[in-house]
Amino acid sequence: MKTGLNKIGIILFTIILTLGLTNCKSVQNANNKQKGAVIGATGGAILGAILGNNIGKGGNGELGAVIGGVVGGGAGVLIGNKMDKQAQKIEEEIPGAQVERVDDGIVVTFDESSGVYFDTNKFNINSASQTTLAKLINVFKEYPDTNILVVGHTDSQGAEDYNLTLSKNRANAVTNYLKQNGISNARLTTNWFGESQPMHDNSTADGRAKNRRVNVAILPNDKMIQDAKSQAGN
């Protein structure tokens, strides 16, 4: 009987310890590969990083389908490790870009101050942007087991329909440039939202400049996920 009580005590202690670890500051501050193993989540955080203030409005179905959920357990640790390395590489190669590790993915945000930008009312890839994208393409080729989502946005200046088309043209310009420079079409998905998803205040010049952005989300593809599960014994 005493042995049985000891076993129950150990189990209860383990449960309490696990709950405590999940809520403690060290886990909250852990990197993404660690959080993937301990907590698990959904791909909604990536949508939030891409869409900003208006997540939940219509038109996000395609993004949700591409992003999916987070892989937990040992496979999540392996995927997180690869994505951490890739994010670090992007930061080293393109120091002006905003690089975020979110869930199992990476969100890279380019605006007028970060190397991939467009002249007013234009959507062609200028020479400065080509230089930045060339560096990003090299990283994509170094880490081939990923899918890439390109999303275009504008500020609120001008007509809404015009801005929607402009964001579409800019997102497609980036996607097409990636294709033309060796990135497989099978890895690429493109979406656009015009002025409807601001992340900054459109009443200021600085806010508008930051809203004229292209987000690139980098996500593990099926091969990376299955390889990680096999290695982890899932």
Summary, kept brief:
With 234 residues, this protein is an alpha+beta fold. The protein has ten helices and five strands; from the N terminus they run H-H-H-H-H-H-E-E-H-E-H-E-H-E-H.
Can you walk through the features of this model?
The protein has 234 residues and is of the alpha+beta class. It has a single domain, classed as 60s Ribosomal Protein L30, Chain: A. Helices cover 53% and strands 13% of the residues. It has helices at residues 2-23, 25-28, 32-38, 44-51, 61-67, 73-93, 127-142, 160-180, 205-211, 222-232, and strands at residues 98-102, 105-110, 146-152, 188-192, 214-220. Strands 1-2-5-3-4 form a 5-stranded mixed sheet, sandwiched between helices. Strand 3 (146-152), helix 8 and strand 4 form a beta-alpha-beta unit. Helix 3 runs antiparallel to helix 6 and helix 6 crosses helix 10 (222-232). The radius of gyration is 20 Å and the shape is globular. It starts with a helix and ends with a helix.
The CATH C-level name is Alpha Beta
Strand content: 5-15%
The fold-level CATH name is: 60s Ribosomal Protein L30, Chain: A
Sequence of strands across the biggest β-sheet: 1-2-5-3-4
Q: What's the order of the H and E elements? A: HHHHHHEEHEHEHEH
Question: What is the count of helical runs?
Answer: 10
Mean pLDDT level: 77
Approximate helicity band: 40-55%
Distance between the termini: 36 Å
What is the C-alpha radius of gyration, as a whole number of Å? 20 Å
Biggest beta sheet attributes: 5 strands, mixed
The CATH architecture: 2-Layer Sandwich
Low-confidence residue ranges: 1-42, 55-61
Global shape = globular
At the fourth CATH level, what is the homologous superfamily? OmpA-like domain
